[in-house]
Amino acid sequence: MKNVIISLLFLSLSACESVEKWTQIDRQPVNQAVVTHDETVNPSKDMPKAQYFDENGSYIHDEKYNALKLSSGVNKRFAMGKQRNINHYIRGITHDLIENLTYVNEQTPLAIASFVLMDKELNKAGILGKQMAESFAHEIYKFGIPVIDFKTTDFLRVTPEGDFILSRDFLELKPNLPMEYILLGTLVKHESGYLVNARIVGLQSKAIVASAQGFLPEDITHAIQGSEKKSNFTLE
To answer: Which domains does the chain have, with CATH numbers?
Structure first.
């Protein structure tokens, strides 16, 4: 019995000591965690670098992109395939022509001439003026107006270089074609592209039956003229 009383007394003293110990701990100030900035971490350095791709989906090294983005128009040249071409602008000019078109309809065929520079010889056209004529032929035809392709011959020329039916030799072309109107135009060099003056004229009367003006940005014309330079042709 004496041993039991001593054991109970010992447990009571231990419990009191434990309560007093935890009470003292509870009264101490709580140390809150402090978030510090680690100067050794460089987000711009440690984060994965952005990757850039050109309009063909080819990867562009960071050094090349950083050098190119300083030049004007880089955002358009690397627009991941969303860059507009010349057909977009010719389409807009064609719509303006159709809005004020008179006399011309599905019964009046017309031809389309190459566009020339206003301040140069009017009997010479570069690749830009020739492509504009091709683009206008497509857009005009979509409106149901007959377009005469006067460069088409009556024969197919078969050669080792290819098979051809188009010609720029007037001796190989028909002298008389059923065209009553012609779409023609001039270009004026601008600091940021080319101003376009387009009109449809009656072959007999020389009267203007439709007129429109537009603008071709430099990055659009440069893309076409660049192909002419690579082919060793003379630019306008």
So the answer is: 48-77 (no CATH), 86-230 (3.40.50.10610)
